[in-house]
């Protein structure tokens, strides 16, 4: 088996990522991320524009000559405790360019300062704001990674239960779907990026004093009927692979049009590394899926 040099280099750095998640204080990590976001410059033909969606901070990612009647609503990951990062900005810019549409990134409130349901409420507010701007639900697609994958699923469940029009489709990158028990990974399994104690801190920070089995916290315990078409990508080597497998099984049994792709050797949200060949493969697949859902592009 031939391993691409970029994959080999990135894989050698994964222990550093794991170490920093375990030991870098949350305020310091947030500060570093914020500095990076401020300094991020996207491609010359992609603009960034800050906007308030009925009080929720968001960022438009606008490729040159993109359509204005169709939107990718992107919900970033970060364990519910970190904001959007430069890598997320680049990921969404890539998807938006591939699809020829605008991307709206939701800078939702963060745990533990703002636990459930703050982040979910902000995502719902941003979605409703898009509808108010005249963007039809059939022209909105939603995507999110990790905790943002969780929010993608719970946003759709909440919209359905409230009788609101649903987006045309959704894509989840390594979704966190069960916040009830992340203390004990499968026996003999070691996630190369997410240590169990860190994952437990993320889920505990978000759930706070709420029941972690609440379907709007852990969508695995929810009703999957009536959701729009769903694409899930996860890595073979990540502990959240099990969440992805269970999401696919539950959605399929409920009649949802769902497809799951498990990428060999990949780790948690590898798509934030643009030079990795598997990133291009994954994001191109996601872009095709979302672009062909709902109203014709």
Low-pLDDT residue spans: none
Reading side by side through the largest sheet, how are the strands ordered?
A: 1-2-4-3-5-6-7-8
Q: Nearest-angstrom radius of gyration?
A: 18 Å
What's the total number of strands?
Answer: 8
End-to-end separation: 38 Å
Task: Indicate the CATH class.
Answer: Alpha Beta
* CATH A-level architecture: 3-Layer(aba) Sandwich
The third-level CATH topology is: Rossmann fold
Name of the CATH superfamily: Alpha/Beta hydrolase fold, catalytic domain
- Structural class designation: alpha/beta
Helix content: 25-40%
Query: Could you tell me the strand content as a percent range?
Result: 15-25%
| Largest sheet data | 8 strands, mixed
Global geometry: globular
Indicate the topology.
Elements: H1 5-23, H2 26-39, E1 46-53, E2 56-63, E3 67-75, H3 86-99, E4 101-106, H4 118-132, E5 140-145, H5 147-161, E6 169-173, H6 196-207, E7 230-235, H7 241-253, E8 258-263, H8 277-291
Helix pairs in contact: 3-8, 4-5
Describe this structure in words.
With about 300 residues, the protein is α/β, with parallel strands linked by helices. The protein has a single domain (about 45-290), classed as Alpha/Beta hydrolase fold, catalytic domain (Rossmann fold, 3-Layer(aba) Sandwich), CATH 3.40.50. About 40% of the residues lie in helices and about 20% in strands. It has an eight-stranded mixed β-sheet, with helices on both faces. A hairpin with a 2-residue loop joins strand 1 (about 45-55) and strand 2 (about 55-65). The longest helix has 19 residues, at about 5-25. The chain is globular, with a radius of gyration of 18 Å.
């Amino acid at each position: 088996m031939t391993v691409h040099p970029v994959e080999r280099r990135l894989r050698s750095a994964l222990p550093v990522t794991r170490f920093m998640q375990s030991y870098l204080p949350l305020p310091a990590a947030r500060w570093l991320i914020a500095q990076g976001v401020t300094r991020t410059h996207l491609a010359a033909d992609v603009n960034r524009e800050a906007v308030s969606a009925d009080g929720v901070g968001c960022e438009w990612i606008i490729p040159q000559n993109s359509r204005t009647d169709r939107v990718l609503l992107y919900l970033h990951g970060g364990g519910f405790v970190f904001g959007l990062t430069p890598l997320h900005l680049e990921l969404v810019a890539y998807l938006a360019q591939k699809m020829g549409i605008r991307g709206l990134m939701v800078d939702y409130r963060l745990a533990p300062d703002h636990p459930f349901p703050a982040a979910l409420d902000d995502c719902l507010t941003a979605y409703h704001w898009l509808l108010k701007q005249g963007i039809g639900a059939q022209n909105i697609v939603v995507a999110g990674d990790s905790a943002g994958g969780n929010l993608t699923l719970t946003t759709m469940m909440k919209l359905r239960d409230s009788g609101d029009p649903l987006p045309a489709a959704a894509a989840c990158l390594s979704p966190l779907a069960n916040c009830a028990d992340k203390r004990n990974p499968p026996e003999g399994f070691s996630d190369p990026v997410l240590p169990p104690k860190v994952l437990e801190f993320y889920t505990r920070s978000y759930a706070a004093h709420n029941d972690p089995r609440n379907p709007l916290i852990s969508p695995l315990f929810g009703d999957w009927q009536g959701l729009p078409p769903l694409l899930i990508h996860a890595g073979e080597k990540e502990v959240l692979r099990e969440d992805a497998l269970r999401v696919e099984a539950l959605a399929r049994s409920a009649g949802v049009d769902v497809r799951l792709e498990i990428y060999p050797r990949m780790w948690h949200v590898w798509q934030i590394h643009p030079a990795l060949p598997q990133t291009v493969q994954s994001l191109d697949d996601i872009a095709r899926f979302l672009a062909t859902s709902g109203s014709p592009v």
